[in-house]
């Protein structure tokens, strides 16, 4: 199991993303992923699937302490008492005594960050979460958060794939001992059709998607690709038995472009949206 260590947390380098996985499909994918060796699951209150993620965990038979489970607090629960209440509700839905990582899903300028971070740290001290962190935070917001946080922040979960330049946030996180967790790590499937990734993959007997994920983990970035297809779970996890050369890393790095973002920040205030 490849792990990324960050401010006291040991985060498995690959996890299963679960956005848009619902009902039986979600529970089955989670169960199968764990049976295949995945040890990291990423859910959120906004995904409306915490129940099924918990169901899949129990069905897998994998011991709770072997799994790294992340959930995220949606922005309308950022007021301190509300945050604690909603974190407890997540645990009830998951039927779990704790999560390994509790994140603020998006920044919310309506509630002072110091208050929200105080509540997040309190949730940790109550044992609701082993570690805490943030998601979709810019460099400026990371600096602001670190200036007030009373507990270590272990990650910033951000959109991160070869078609988007996130070097500034990555550098800032790593400088502060925080992990970068890459969401949409295969650009919502777009990596599959990329000719550069496919050509490099052919040289390693790997797919374009595997090269894409390898490019990220080789920079000590955690990846959480989502699939609704059991057969793709193994493909997405088989990224630790080859290495990209410096030249290949450079070539993939050159794929980023200014309009490479897939997730629109303007949506961040809307409930139930990722
Ligand atoms: N913090 C945030 O604000 C935030 C935002 C977005 C996402 N996330 C998290 O990050 C996770 C991953 O991001 P994402 O779901 O946006 O996108 P993603 O993982 O980059 O891509 C998922 C898409 O790629 C396809 N895919 C998966 N494996 C494949 C393979 N081997 N070959 C070809 N296509 C493949 C999937 O289709 P099939 O289902 O058909 O395989 C799906 O359409 C989410 O599920 C969620 O947990 C967090």
Descriptors:
single chain, globular, alpha/beta, binds NADP nicotinamide-adenine-dinucleotide phosphate, 274 residues, 17% strand, 10 strands, disordered C terminus, two-stranded antiparallel ribbon, eight-stranded parallel beta sheet
Write the layout of secondary structure elements.
Blueprint: E1 3-6, E2 9-12, E3 16-17, H1 23-36, E4 40-42, H2 50-60, E5 68-73, H3 80-94, E6 99-104, H4 113-125, E7 129-135, H5 139-148, E8 153-159, H6 167-175, E9 179-183, H7 195-204, H8 208-217, E10 222-223, H9 230-237, H10 246-253
Parallel strand pairs: 3-4, 4-5, 5-6, 6-7, 7-8, 8-9, 9-10
Antiparallel strand pairs: 1-2
NADP nicotinamide-adenine-dinucleotide phosphate is lined by residues 17-19, 42, 105, 135-136, 157, 183-189, 192, 209, 224-229, 232, 235-236, 263, 274.
Helical content (DSSP H or I, runs of 4+): 25-40%
Strand arrangement, major sheet: 3-4-5-6-7-8-9-10
Give me the Rg, rounded. Answer: 18 Å
User: Termini distance?
Assistant: 28 Å
Mean pLDDT: 95
Which regions have little confidence, pLDDT < 50, spanning 5+ residues? 270-274
User: In sequence order, what are the helices and strands, one letter per element?
Assistant: EEEHEHEHEHEHEHEHHEHH
Give the distinct bound molecules: NADP nicotinamide-adenine-dinucleotide phosphate
Largest sheet: 8 strands, parallel
The structural class is: alpha/beta
